[in-house]
């Protein structure tokens, strides 16, 4: 990628351009109807605001980032979460422990009978660290 020295005395990447606002913007940026420059792929939503490429209008009337889904609880969650038997969403890899609680992937039951995060160990003080 080539760079060039701009009229502002700083270097800019190839494709950058000097906008009507007197500032340099990345290649693909565009001037929106709001008078601001936006990244390539951004779009004007029904709310009159610009949103990143891949965003979508949810049933709640809000825009959500790409990769979110509508859960059975009526809320939007990031991909990689699942609905637990407790009615809550948990990160993939989490599991339901014998204590009835969800724990992060790799957690284990220590000598004290409690769950501890992956990588922790029993110290000489009798506590898990």
Query: Considering DSSP H and I runs of 4 or more, what fraction of the residues is helical?
Result: under 10%
Please provide the ordered H/E string of secondary-structure elements: EEEEEEEEEEEEEEEEEE
Mean pLDDT, all residues: 94
| CA(first)-CA(last) distance | 47 Å
Spatial order of strands in the largest sheet:
1-2
Instruction: Figure out the total of helices.
Output: 0
Region (Disordered): 108-129
Protein name: MORN repeat-containing protein
Question: Can you describe what's shown?
Answer:
The protein is mainly beta. 0% of the residues lie in helices and 33% in strands. It is built from no helices and 18 strands. It has strands spanning 3-5, 11-13, 17-18, 24-25, 30-31, 37-38, 43-44, 50-51, 56-57, 63-64, 68-70, 76-78, 81-83, 89-91, 95-96, 102-103, 108-109, 115-116. Strands 1-2 form a two-stranded antiparallel sheet. A two-stranded antiparallel ribbon has the order 3-4. Strand 11 (68-70) and strand 12 form a beta hairpin. The radius of gyration is 24 Å and the shape is elongated. It comes from Sphingobacterium anhuiense. Residues 108-129 are annotated as: Disordered. This is MORN repeat-containing protein.
């Amino acid at each position: 990628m080539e760079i060039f020295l701009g009229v502002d005395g700083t270097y800019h990447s190839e494709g950058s351009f000097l906008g009507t606002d007197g500032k340099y913007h990345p290649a693909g940026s565009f001037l929106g109807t709001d008078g601001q420059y936006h990244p390539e792929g951004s779009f004007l939503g029904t709310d009159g605001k610009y949103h990143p490429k891949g965003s979508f209008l949810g049933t709640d009337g809000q825009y959500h980032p790409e990769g979110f889904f509508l859960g059975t609880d009526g809320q939007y969650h990031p991909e990689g979460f699942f609905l637990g038997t407790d009615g809550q969403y948990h990160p993939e890899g989490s599991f339901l422990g014998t204590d009835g609680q969800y724990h992060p992937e790799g957690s284990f039951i220590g000598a004290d009978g409690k769950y501890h995060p992956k990588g922790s160990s029993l110290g000489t003080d009798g506590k898990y660290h």
